[in-house]
Amino acid sequence: MTIARFVVLAVALVAGSARATALPPVDQVGFAPAPGAVLPMNARFNDEHGRSVRLADVVDGRAAIVVPAYYGCSNLCTIVLRGVAASLRASGIRAGRDASVVAVSIAPLETPALALAKKREVLGSAMGDARDGWHFLTGNDAAIGRVTRALGYRYTYVAAEKQYAHASGIAIVAPDGRVARVLYGVAFPPAELRDALAAARDATQRDALVTPDTAARDSGVSKWLLCFHYDPKTGRYSFAAMNTVRAAGLLALAALVGYTATAWRRERRMPRRNRTP
Q1: Interval 102-116 mean pLDDT
Q2: What whole-number distance in Å separates Cα of residue 274 and Cα of residue 277?
């Protein structure tokens, strides 16, 4: 096969793969609080029992782990919440004593009943011990918008998939609502979580807890994990797997370019009579 034919075939394969893979709307997704960001502690939600509460009520004067999520998500959201629970157990931090854990649904149509079901799913046998320290909130568009804007948490609903595209991570918040740090991903090293909570507890009013450098560095990371999956019915990779697919595609493209360049140089060095017509 000549180099020209090989390149044409490779381009066709890449183009076909791109058509088969639906890229998520990454430009509409992010998790990057501004420096000095403060949560609206007077924002009202319903807890998992249907009680009207303020954000300040559930933070309850402690450093808090705030988890933007939605309870109808069967993918990364549940994994993130379980990751928080596992990290708390491993670090010796007790929810309700050392910190508050506050899950905030980004879906305004979700109900307290759904929030309670998710709490039971995440905590399992630890439900009784952790019920006072874990809070699963639902609210209207206005309340959700106030919290997500303060967190720099951008997401979008994708009607075709009937799911939200959103970043994966947690915010560590000081008792007065100031955002101390964002930890990205689905698993949180116990030592890192412990240090972040300690910094949030010990913060003073003079502290700029989220610095411009941190926000700039994290803005790219905040798009790394997106909450979708591979759909075997449509044959499309979607949001949770998309960055892995994208990275693999880049590696394959780099290998292709390297192979093409090497083969072209070899073909140029061959005597004309030995070249394949």
Answers
A1: 97
A2: 9
Angle at 68 between CA 121 and CA 96, to 5 degrees: 65
Cα–Cα distance between 47 and 34 in angstroms, integer? 27
Alpha-carbon distance of 89 to 73, in angstroms, equals 24
- How long, in residues, is the chain? 277
User: Cα separation of 230 and 238, whole Å?
Assistant: 5
**CA geometry: angle 203, 206, 209, nearest 5 deg:** 55
Task: Please tell me the distance from the alpha carbon of residue 105 to that of residue 211, in angstroms, as a whole number.
Answer: 26
Specify the pTM: 0.72
Q: Report how far apart, in Å, the C-alpha atoms of 3 and of each of 17, 239, 256, 277 are.
A: 21, 35, 11, 11
User: Which amino acid, residue 171?
Assistant: A
Of residues 270 and 123, more confidently modeled:
123
Q: Which residues of 49-63 are buried (b: 16+ CB within 10 A; e: fewer)?
A: eeeebebbbbbeebb
